[in-house]
Design brief:
Blueprint: H1 12-17, H2 38-46, H3 49-54, H4 56-70, E1 74-76, H5 83-87, E2 92-95, E3 99-102, H6 109-113, H7 124-137, E4 142-148, H8 150-159, H9 167-175, H10 177-201, E5 205-210, H11 218-237, E6 243-247, H12 254-258, E7 264-266, H13 273-279, E8 285-290, H14 299-313, E9 319-323, H15 333-345, H16 352-356
Parallel strand pairs: 1-4, 4-5, 5-6, 6-7, 7-8, 8-9
Antiparallel strand pairs: 2-3
The structure holds coproporphyrinogen III.
Length: 357
């Protein structure tokens, strides 16, 4: 568990991460700054994704614009999961419509031995962007920093991009377990340093994205992924901030992911929130879990789904409203704004005001 600095404990979002009581459920969205938003697309007309990430003034502007337009309780710094690859010696680019492409993916122990772990300082542009956002909001919103989890980043490094079956990743994991462990250890060194920079810059909370952990069998997660993840979680918490651990397609994996020790677990939409939380014995806070594609429905249906999730959370301390995964391009912005309104207007059936009034 994270030691709590007292000056942070008053923010609704941070309080919920720590399972402290709040006046209402905090809400923010995965990929709240992205291609569904015209303001972002306007910036993208003039700058590449990597340019935006590396220019603290623009990254801060994109972060602030999205958080203000949606009126959410937390801002997530505009950056990308793959940025640390560059300072470890792996070049990549984002190709239109294809997602990320790593030019020379890792295939063997020699490639892994060659990875650099001493240049995390090159990522300082992310911290600079965080400083700007923090200076803008002056504590009115929670500030989320983030990084990838060892498994998800390793999978990009090995596959060279997105993957369907993770054949190369799992092959290396099964057949060269020492090299695999070395890779994860190296990632932990860089990611810890990267998270520390973000916390020093003013991040209130760090989210670790293990977006593709759902591809793993429980036993493989336990044997090959949990040990390094646990170390990263512990080291980030030792920086004095709560930690959110997020994955997709993780229904059966959640109790094992819980063992990594995060303060908050992200839930996707495939399991009802109450069931998932119960199966975790309410031993941590939870974040989620509206299907992002619900945002294409009519407002009445969206309202019903949002309120159903809040009903399932039943006013227990430690729920942060979010989607089960990121907002996709084409999502109507007004529907995202409507979700914020639906969360704010919600009165728990067990809430005294609702019962009597
Ligand atoms: O508002 C925010 O959420 C902050 C910004 C953010 C981006 N990437 C910017 C981005 C965050 C939190 C990420 C994390 C990230 N990056 C993840 C984990 C989140 C998840 O969805 O599970 C992953 C897997 C990546 C790697 C990545 N970056 C991929 C696979 C892609 C291409 C996929 C796609 O949607 O096209 C990206 C590109 C990317 N990163 C975009 C944005 C806004 C869209 C492309 C663009 O603007 O050109």
């Amino acid at each position: 568990m994270t030691p709590i600095p007292s000056d942070l404990s008053s923010h609704r979002f941070v309080r919920a991460c720590l399972r402290q009581p709040v006046d209402r459920t905090p809400v923010w969205f995965l990929r709240q700054a992205g291609r569904y938003m015209p303001e972002y697309m306007e910036v993208r007309r003039h700058h590449s994704l990597l340019e935006i990430c590396k220019r603290p003034d623009i990254a801060a502007e994109v972060t602030i614009t999205a958080a203000e337009k949606l009126d959410v309780d937390a801002a997530i710094i505009f950056a990308d999961l793959l940025l640390p690859l560059e300072c470890m010696g792996l070049d990549f680019e984002f190709q239109a419509g294809e997602g990320p492409v790593i030019h020379k993916p890792l295939r063997n122990a020699a490639d892994i031995n060659a990875l650099i772990t001493t240049r995390a300082a090159e990522l300082s542009y992310v911290g600079e962007a965080i400083q700007r956002v923090v200076a803008h909001f002056k504590g009115r919103l929670g500030m989320i920093g983030f990084c990838g989890a060892p498994f998800t980043l390793a999978s990009y490094m090995i596959e060279g991009g997105g993957s369907r079956n993770y054949v190369e990743t799992k092959k290396l994991m099964y057949r060269q377990p020492d090299a695999w462990r070395k890779l994860l250890d190296k990632l932990v060194i860089v990611l810890r340093e990267f998270a520390a920079q973000q916390v020093a810059a003013g991040a209130d909370v760090i989210q670790i994205f293990d977006s593709w952990a759902g591809a793993l069998a429980i036993q493989d997660y336990r044997d090959f992924v949990l040990p390094a993840t646990k170390i990263l979680v512990r080291e980030v918490q030792a920086l004095g901030v709560p930690l959110i651990y997020f994955g997709v397609d993780t229904a059966s994996l959640l109790p094992t992911m819980r063992e990594a020790g995060a303060d908050v677990l992200g839930l996707d939409w495939r399991t009802p929130l109450d069931k998932a939380w119960r199966e975790l014995d309410y031993s941590c806070a939870v974040q989620g879990n509206l299907d992002p594609i619900t945002l294409f429905a009519e407002p009445e249906l969206i309202r019903a789904r949002v309120h159903q999730i809040l009903d399932q959370a039943a006013g227990k301390p430690g729920h942060i409203f979010n989607l089960g995964h990121g907002i996709v391009p084409g999502t109507p912005v007004e529907n995202v704004q409507a979700v914020v309104k639906f969360v704010r207007e919600y009165k728990s059936p067990t809430h005294p005001e609702a019962r009597h009034g």
